[in-house]
């Protein structure tokens, strides 16, 4: 593109590039749709970047007049290397989503509806918010909760076909990046949907189990203490299964973070220990230390600190010894792996020095690093 002056009101205040799909927010400022959606929905900001005023209504109004001016200007300056900006596809409406949901009566129509929702949600953040506000969350949750696993057993052909709706419903629920209000509604008062996710982790496909863990992590972040205290032992058993099966790196990592979040509440650390969750979890975490990156090492040591603080039963401490975790933490103190990582490793070792310091499981070459 030649050196040409672009009219300043064609420029998005966030991206500082020519707007392709200008939209106006409630404060009267116009932004490019992609940039303001990312600011509001992915960044979870609530203020206008220019005026700093609170955006009370996240409705984005297309600025058609400005878009046409930009398109005309681009065409007039094509000889200078300015590319033509195509007319953007209009976002989905609430009426269209509601009709889609109402038409999903039969299993075949439900699968068609899921595919449509997945496609619509993938287009932009505005569509995701429209889907969320149109009652689709309840529809998707019911697809997960009402799935009959026993009906598909014994028929491989039907199993693959019938598992797909659960996979897609969970995938959409997670990728919608639900608001706190929707996550609270999913949790409900008695945690029925957590029971449904536990069932998915027990009997679902690998995809379903991974999405169940990811979605559960989002729900736990907004849950109240009573809901976290009342988690059932079956959940911890299934989380152990996810860790053991190593479905994916993201699922394992999320599973460990989830356990670190819920173990401090009530009798959860006992439930976790009885489920054998820490043997599987500690083994996976310890492998990350000094093998992937400094960031991975710091995160792994942080998770080990949470486990040793809140779930430090005799069984767990012995597992950490036998799996070489204690020796690995001593090695961290000898290596160049960042101040924060070393401080956390030192804290873990000090916390259980009475049990670990004199153990023959720790090589004598590393015992010299053990903090006093």
Automatic annotation (TrEMBL):
<dbReference type="InterPro" id="IPR003613">
    <property type="entry name" value="Ubox_domain"/>
</dbReference>
<comment type="pathway">
    <text>Protein modification; protein ubiquitination.</text>
</comment>
<dbReference type="InterPro" id="IPR045185">
    <property type="entry name" value="PUB22/23/24-like"/>
</dbReference>
<dbReference type="InterPro" id="IPR058678">
    <property type="entry name" value="ARM_PUB"/>
</dbReference>
<dbReference type="InterPro" id="IPR045210">
    <property type="entry name" value="RING-Ubox_PUB"/>
</dbReference>
<keyword id="KW-0808">Transferase</keyword>
<dbReference type="Pfam" id="PF04564">
    <property type="entry name" value="U-box"/>
</dbReference>
<comment type="function">
    <text>Functions as an E3 ubiquitin ligase.</text>
</comment>
<dbReference type="InterPro" id="IPR016024">
    <property type="entry name" value="ARM-type_fold"/>
</dbReference>
<dbReference type="GO" id="GO:0006952">
    <property type="term" value="P:defense response"/>
</dbReference>
<dbReference type="Pfam" id="PF25598">
    <property type="entry name" value="ARM_PUB"/>
</dbReference>
<dbReference type="GO" id="GO:0016567">
    <property type="term" value="P:protein ubiquitination"/>
</dbReference>
<protein>
    <recommendedName>
        <fullName>U-box domain-containing protein</fullName>
        <ecNumber>2.3.2.27</ecNumber>
    </recommendedName>
</protein>
<feature type="domain" description="U-box">
    <location>
        <begin position="5"/>
        <end position="80"/>
    </location>
</feature>
<dbReference type="InterPro" id="IPR013083">
    <property type="entry name" value="Znf_RING/FYVE/PHD"/>
</dbReference>
<keyword id="KW-0833">Ubl conjugation pathway</keyword>
<dbReference type="InterPro" id="IPR011989">
    <property type="entry name" value="ARM-like"/>
</dbReference>
<dbReference type="GO" id="GO:0061630">
    <property type="term" value="F:ubiquitin protein ligase activity"/>
</dbReference>
């Amino acid at each position: 593109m030649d050196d040409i002056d672009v009219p300043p009101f064609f420029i998005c205040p966030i991206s500082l590039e020519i707007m392709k799909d200008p939209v106006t927010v409630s404060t009267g400022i116009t932004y490019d749709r992609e940039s303001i959606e990312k600011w509001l929905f992915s960044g979870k900001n609530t203020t206008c970047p220019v005026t700093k005023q609170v955006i009370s209504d996240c409705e984005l109004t297309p600025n058609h007049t400005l878009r046409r001016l930009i398109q005309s200007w681009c065409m007039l300056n094509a000889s200078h290397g300015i590319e033509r900006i195509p007319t953007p596809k209009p976002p989905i409406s609430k009426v269209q989503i509601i009709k889609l949901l109402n038409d999903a009566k039969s299993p075949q129509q439900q699968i068609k509806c899921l595919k449509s929702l997945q496609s619509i949600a993938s287009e932009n953040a505005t569509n995701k918010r429209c889907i969320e506000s149109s009652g689709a969350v309840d529809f998707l949750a019911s697809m997960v909760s009402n799935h009959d696993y026993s009906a598909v057993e014994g028929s491989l052909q039907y199993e693959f076909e019938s598992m797909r709706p659960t996979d897609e419903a969970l995938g959409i629920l997670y990728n919608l990046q639900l608001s706190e209000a929707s996550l609270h509604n999913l949790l409900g008062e008695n945690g029925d949907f957590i029971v449904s996710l536990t069932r998915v982790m027990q009997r679902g496909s690998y995809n379903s189990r991974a999405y169940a863990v990811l979605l559960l992590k989002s729900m736990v972040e907004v849950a109240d203490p009573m809901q976290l205290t009342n988690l059932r032992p079956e959940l911890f058993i299934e989380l152990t299964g996810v860790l053991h099966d190593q479905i994916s790196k993201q699922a394992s990592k999320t599973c460990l973070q989830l356990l670190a979040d819920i173990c401090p509440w009530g009798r959860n650390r006992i439930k976790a220990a009885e489920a054998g969750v820490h043997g599987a979890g500690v083994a996976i975490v310890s492998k990350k230390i000094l093998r992937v990156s400094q960031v991975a090492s710091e995160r792994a040591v942080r998770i080990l600190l949470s486990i040793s603080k809140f779930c430090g039963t005799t069984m767990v401490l012995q597992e950490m010894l036998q799996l070489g975790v204690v020796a690995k933490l001593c090695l961290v103190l000898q290596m160049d792996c960042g101040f924060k990582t070393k401080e956390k490793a030192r804290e873990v070792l000090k916390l259980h020095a009475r049990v670990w310091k004199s153990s023959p499981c720790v090589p004598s070459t590393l015992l010299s690093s053990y903090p006093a």
